[in-house]
């Protein structure tokens, strides 16, 4: 019998990382800039606490492309590493210095804003580089270190003479990844992932136009100067306190988020909570009208100001994915599948917090300026109606501010409406029948007929209205909806007045027969009698249930 050790080929870990760690190779830059940001923030915390006795200054991160040398440099002025620390943090794959830092200082720094936590981010560099160098000088009084690795498990580590504090990562870009030596590609990546990171990121220079001097002539060109091209806004609006922001600040942040969007948002909701989970963000209501097919995925998800994704499915309730804006939370687990996300306790709480904040904001808009709210109704109703259909909690809140406009341009809440019409529109079984039209022009005659009888007619034209009515009918007692061209409009109470028809019985039968020849008798009802409106000698109706069934099959 033979025994022995299975030889675990450690060589194989790099190809694995390269292939499976992240499906998206481009995120290596996000990871390395996150590390540079962490290193800078750590130094900030340490100097604040007096543990590092160095000048913090105004550190920034610099990205440099060396196209000829096929190298990409990421340079920071953070806390740096000693040789021992390189051994510990870099050579031990999956040992996270970020996690260790947070553990060590958890009582001293709240909201440290540290990004890293898996201890794998650094190795994503090997997805695009055939060789990686680290040249790093700690803030501690120790010599700088130079680490080199070509993607095999062998590395070299030696002392070097770097003088300034901080770390430079040099990627020798692999043959299959030369796209990352293009300025345009790097600019795109920086704008996508790093636009709102907390430490300034410099990428090359740019030309800035200065104001013309007083005595300049008309034809003189404005003077210019070369300045650092800082690609990010380190203090985006959502990281500030609502009290420190004005309406205009919210609007300009919207333009920053969506530079191609020219329409202004209707209003915004500032999210800001740190217990029992951490979440900040700003949501915007865009003008939606009846359009439910607007491009979703407009809400961007960040973690500590690092862009993660613009697919917030499973994190934000579906009806709110029609909104725009940003949410930032370190508490959303992202290394799990979407279906698992929906079951996650923290995520559930976040989702219901967002729903509640949106409902509260709408409620306060309604209460504080009803006229304005009515004016916006048409542009926000699809979100509210969809929310009422899909989230019971939202329904309960929205029931107080959801509006029901009439064809004459008045707006009622459900309660107001019920109060207004119950005397005139309650049938003999005690059911209040709410009449509505879905198209003012097409249903004009029916609307006029109903109004002539003194009935209120709502104008409900959103694409999901039939579902909403169904929902209201089941949640409220003794009400039902009927479209104004439905059969039982005429069976509403006010039965006392008798209308004297101008036609004899035979004439009526004849007209009825003629009309029925051209419409489908099974689907429509033709009435010739009791049409007191001069404009409508006969009327064609369709039973409400039949019409609604058809409609619901369509949506
Ligand atoms: P994580 O960021 O999740 O901790 P990484 O693999 O990205 O894991 O990095 C591992 C560790 O290497 C970091 O925690 C940090 O201690 C160290 N490190 C990486 N980049 C830098 C840097 N630019 N400056 C200082 N330390 C760094
Ligand atoms: Mg990291």
From TrEMBL:
Keywords: ATP-binding, Chaperone, Nucleotide-binding. InterPro entries: HATPase_C_sf, Heat_shock_protein_90_CS, HSP90_C, Hsp90_fam, Hsp90_N, Ribosomal_Su5_D2-typ_SF. The keyword DNA-binding does not apply. Residues 209-241 are annotated as: Disordered. Residues 226-238 have a biased composition (Polar residues). ATP binds at residues 31, 35, 76, 81, 96-97, 167, 338. One of its GO terms (molecular function) is ATP-dependent protein folding chaperone. It comes from the Bacteria. The keyword Nucleotide-binding applies. PANTHER family: HEAT SHOCK PROTEIN 90 FAMILY MEMBER. Belongs to the heat shock protein 90 family. This is Molecular chaperone HtpG.
